[in-house]
Amino acid sequence: MLMTIVGIYSLYVLISIYVSVMQIGYINQAKRKSAVLLSSSEFLKAGNYAVEKEKLSIVNTFVDYILFIAWMGFGISFLSENLFFQNEALTNVAIVMGFVVINSIISIPFAYYEKFVIDEKYGFNKSTLGLYIKDTLISFIMTLLFGSLVVWGIYEIMVNFTYWWVWSFVFVFCVIVLINMLYPTFRAMFFDKVKPLENEELKGEIQTLMDKTGFVSSGVFVSDASKRDARLNAYFGGFGKTKRVVLFDTLIEKLTTKELLAVLGHELGHFAHGDIYKNIAMVGVMLFGMFAIFGNLPESLYLELGISQEPYLSMILLLLFMPVLGFIMMPIMGLVSRHNEYEADKMGSELGGPSGSIELANALQKLVSENKSFPLSHPLYIFFHYTHPPVLERLKELGVDIGDMDKDSLEGSCQAPL
Asked: Which of 105, 295, 373, 411 has fewest C-beta within 10 Å?
C-alpha cells in the first residue's frame, strides 16, 4: 500500500512538471511571434514573467516531492518520537502542527524569491522587507492558533465517533464557510487598511448596480493594497450581513468609472448566479472525497510506516495528499468555473448598458496589461490550471474584434523550453 501511495504521488509530480514544461516551451515560442493585446515589448515582458514564475513552480514542486519522500520515510516517525506530552490530544495537535510549521518554514524562501526577486524585477512588488516579515509573522501566528483549534476539533471527533471521517468533513466544511464569512474582517484587521469609499458619485453608481441584482452589502470599501503590490483587483467577501465590496486602490487608479462598473457587474453576475455557493459545493465534494479515502486506509499502511494508527497520522497523510487530490479535481472544477466566468461576463456587459461589452472588454485588456498576464497558454495548461477562460476567448464572447493576430501562436504545439 505504501508503494502505491508513493507511486500515485510520483505520477502527480511527473504530470505536473510535464504540464509546466509544455507551458514554458509554448510561451517561449509564442512570445517571439506577433504580439496579442499588448505592445511588442510588453508582450515579451509578460511572456518572460510567466516563464520565470513557471520555472519557480517546477522547483517548488520538486522540493515538495523530496519533502513528501522524507515525511513518508522518516519525518512523521521523527515527529512522533520527539513530540510527546502526557495529554494525548496535545500530543496529536503538536505533531500535526509541527508538520505544518516545518512545511511553512521551508516554503518561505520560495515566497520571498517570488516577491522580492521575480515580482520586484517586473515592477509588482511594493512591499518593504519589514512589512513582508510582519505579514509573514501574522500569517504564521494565525495558522498556528486557528490550525491548532481545527486539529484539536478533528482529534476529538476521531476518538469519539466511529464514522469520524464523515463528521470531520462536516466540521472542516463549516470552518471553511466561517472563514469565507470572516475573511474581509480579518484582512482589514491584520493586513490591508480598508476605509469606506469616499467618492459619493461612484458609490451611488455602485449601489445602483447592486440594487439591480439584489446584492445587499455592509458597504463599499477601498483597500490600500498598493503598499504591497501593483496588481489590480477587487473582491466581494462574506455572507449575509457580512458581505462587503472591497476595491483595491490600484483598480480605482487605473480603470475609468465605466470600466470599474463593468468589472463589478461581472462580480455581481457571480452573485446573481449563485456561483459562490456552487464553488463551495465543489470544494465540499472534494473534501468529502478526501476524508472518505483517508478515513478508510488499510491497517497495512500503518504497519509499513512503522507507526501506530494514531489520529495525527491520518491528518498528516490527508495534508500530504491534498495537492494530489486538488490536481485531480481541478480540471472538473476549472471547467465549471470557466463556464461561470462566461456567464458573469455576459451579465456584467448587460448591467453596463449599451456600451457594457466594450467597457468590460477595455477593463479586461487593462487587467492583462497592468498585471502582465501573458494572453496565450498551452491547452494542457489551461485544462489543468485555468479557473478563468483565456482572455482572448472572453473577448470573443463579448463580440470584441481582437484584430489580426498570428494564428500559429495560438496552436497547442511547442518546442523544448529555452
From this structure: 105
pLDDT above 70: percentage of residues in the chain = 92
The three-state secondary structure class of 212 is helix
The residues near 111 (Cβ < 8 Å, ≥ 6 apart) are: 136
Residue for grid cell 500559429: 408
Burial class (CB in 10 A: 0-12, 13-18, 19+), 401: exposed
The residue extents of the domains of the chain are 2-194+268-410
Question: Rounded to the nearest 5°, which phi and psi values hold at 182?
Answer: -95, -10
Distance between CA atoms of residues 134 and 125, nearest Å: 15
- Round to whole Å and give the CA distance between 215 and 209: 9
User: Half-sphere exposure of 57 toward its Cβ, with a 13 Å CA cutoff?
Assistant: 16
For the chain, what's the residue count?
Answer: 418
Chain centroid to CA 97: 22
Q: Of 181, 188, 107, 95, give the one whose Cα is nearest residue 140.
A: 107
* pTM (two decimals): 0.84
Q: What are the CA-CA distances from residue 175 to residues 325, 332, 356, 359, 411 (Å)?
A: 20, 24, 38, 38, 43
What is the phi/psi pair of residue 231, to 5°? -70, 155
Residue-wise over 329-344: b if at least 16 C-beta within 10 A, else e? Answer: bbeebbeebbebbebb
Q: Alpha carbon of 72 to those of 95, 151, 226: distances in Å?
A: 14, 20, 42
Q: In Å, how far are 55, 112, 263, 376 from 372, measured between CA atoms?
A: 17, 20, 18, 12
Asked if 348 and 259 touch (Cβ cutoff 8 Å), the reply is no
Taking the mean position of all CA atoms in its chain, how far away is CA 163? 31
Do residues 173 and 287 touch, judged by C-beta distance below 8 A?
yes
pLDDT digits (tens, 9 = 90+) for 9-37: 999 999 999 999 999 999 999 999 989 88
Q: Tell me how far apart the alpha carbons of residues 113 and 226 are, in angstroms, rounded to a whole number.
A: 19
Distance CA 42, CA 52 (A): 15
**How far is CA 326 from each of CA 42, 329, 338, 384, 396, rounded to the nearest angstrom?**
33, 5, 17, 10, 30
Phi/psi for 371 (5° steps) reads -90, 5
**With contact defined as beta carbons under 8 Å apart, do 221 and 195 qualify?**
yes
Over the stretch 69-98, which tens digit does the pLDDT of each residue have? 999 988 999 999 898 888 999 999 999 999
Q: Are 297 and 314 in contact (CB under 8 A)?
A: yes
- What distances in angstroms separate CA 380 from CA 26, 58, 145, 238, one per listed residue? 10, 16, 39, 33
